[in-house]
Amino acid sequence: EVSIFWFRRDLRLEDNVGLFHALKSKQPVIPLFIFDDSILDSLPKNDTRVGFIHESLSKINNRLQEIGSSILIKKGKTTEVWQSLLQEFDVKEVFFNKDYEPYAIKRDSAICEILEANNAISYSFKDQVIFEEKEITKADGLPYTVYTPFKNKWLEKYKSMAPVQEYDTEAYFSGFHKNSFAFPTLEQIGFEESPIKVKPHNLNFISNYQDIRDFPALDQTSYLSPHLRFGTVSIRKLVNWAFHKNDVFLSELIWREFFMQILFSFPKVVTQNFKSAYDGIQWRNDEADFKRWCSGTTGYPMVDAGMRQLNETGYMHNRVRMVVASFLCKHLLIQWQWGEAYFAEKLLDYDLSANVGNWQWAAGTGCDAAPYFRVFNPEIQQKKFDEKGMYIRKWIKEFDLGYGEPMVEHAMARDRAIATYKAGILK
Ligand code: FAD
Asked: N or C: which end of the chain has fewer CB within 10 A?
């Protein structure tokens, strides 16, 4: 008789809520990870994110081996994998942490049905956020769609319980099943090493984060995003620590939870405008323009540097993400879904809720979004945030040799965007 703990986007042993509860269950715990074909089949073979998952699992496995256990790695369609696991082991209880994306919610409910049919009990936990689902709502119980009141309520609730409980899994490590499952290589999973790597996170700058975070050349932000995406860092530890350090930084972590609760409450935002009044906008959706944006050859240095940073490293500084997103939607009048999909393919920190939330913010179609008549001027953004051109020169090698003409003139593009939005927005 065994319990299974199913790792998904929580790839760490420490302070892992579901794992903590699994280890306290009656049965020895087999830790499991499934490389899900439904997700992997569409990815390139050298996808950095798969490599990062593999590396993070390998670290977990090394630690488990020290205590005579190991992680069980499977690959396939999750329903099929679970059917066969239930044949292989006498599974009494299954523990996992919740994932709020529509695909994951559907997948988990299908798995829970299979478990129930096999007399295995499933338990799910909140782990990747401080507050989930309907924990932060307006007085009438409806979800917030504006950030500031959400943040105020979030802070009020957090302060009432700070620090939030952390879970000392290590105290229960004796609960792991003793075994030595083979740990597959990346190649055995059908993938290969990528030349790009996920950077370690960095929290040294934290005391003056608010002063430096907007300047891409300084490159002084935390690089936490892929770690939060895959759960190699605990949000509880991070927030309990950040709460005393820097309010602006904490606000960014609350933005993350805001977009997660928007996705949970309004799953249509994955593909559709949050504001349906914006559905009538006549996008130009010009394929050739889109290609120039993707390759970083628009003639606007700030936009091009950002896209080249993304293409080369899988990362782009937040200030520049805002500039390139606004440029695509407003200067080129290409619908946000195209840009969102491109970011999803390239970003190492790609997260459905944050990506969709921020893209809709930039397009003006989202909740609490930038107003439609606010059109970032890429040249002014450059002057303000990269005055000496250090960021631009880093990513555009040919910059000093004379840079090409902008593909659209700013004043024309701005007027065209405002007119198009105005005509398309339903009154
Ligand atoms: P820091 O400035 O150190 O911030 C710390 C953490 O706060 C981040 O790791 C992240 O978890 C959270 N955070 C910060 N800003 C935001 C924000 N605007 N929205 C939500 N969470 C935030 N972030 C993603 O994690 N995944 C995405 O797919 C993603 N897509 C984006 C698309 C666009 C168009 C824009 C404008 C922003 C996007 N962001 C996304 C938000 C933000 O750009 C990144 O989280 C940030 O740049 C990551 O770097 P960092 O960890 O060094 O950030």
From this structure: C
| ipTM of the shown complex | 0.99
- The H-assigned helical ranges of 2-47 are 17-23, 37-40
Q: Of the residues 252, 254, 338, 342, which should be mutated to test ligand 1's pocket, given the most ligand atoms within 8 Å of the CB?
A: 252
pLDDT per residue over 85-133, tens digit each?
A: 999 999 999 999 999 999 999 999 999 999 999 999 999 999 999 999 9
Q: Are the CB atoms for 334 and 284 separated by under 8 Å?
A: yes
Ligand 1 atom 9, closest CA: 225
The residues pairing with 32 across neighbouring beta strands, listed in sequence order, are: 6, 72
> Distance between CA atoms of 183 and 67, rounded to whole angstroms?
16
Place of tokens 């939005």: 421
Dist. CA 111 → ligand 1 center (Å): 31
Q: Ligand 1 atom 46: the closest Cα is on which residue?
A: 318
Q: 270-424 adopts what CATH topology? A: DNA Cyclobutane Dipyrimidine Photolyase, subunit A; domain 3 (1.10.579)
The one-letter code for the residue type at 210 is Q
| pLDDT, tens digit (0-9, with 9 covering 90-100), for 145-173 | 999 999 999 999 999 999 999 999 999 99
- Residues 6+ away with beta carbon under 8 Å from 397: none
* CATH architecture, domain 129-164+209-265: Alpha Horseshoe (1.25)
The protein residue whose alpha carbon is closest to atom 15 in ligand 1 is 252
Alpha-helical segments (H) within 218-368: 225-230, 235-242, 247-265, 287-295, 301-313, 318-326, 336-346, 352-363
Asked whether 324 and 372 are in contact (CB, 8 A), the reply is no
pLDDT one-digit tens code per residue, 254-276: 999 999 999 999 999 999 999 99
CA 82-233-191 angle, 5° bins: 50
DSSP designation for 327: I
What residue spans define the domains of the chain? 1-128, 129-164+209-265, 270-424
Decide if domain 1-128 falls under CATH 3.40.50.620. Answer: yes
- Rounded alpha-carbon distances, angstroms, from residue 256 to 167, 249, 261, 352, 397: 22, 11, 9, 11, 34
Rounded distance between C-alpha atoms, residue 356 and residue 261, angstroms = 12
Q: With 90 as the cut, is the pLDDT of residue 206 above it?
A: no
Query: What pairing do the DSSP bridges indicate for beta strands 121-125 and 91-97?
Result: parallel
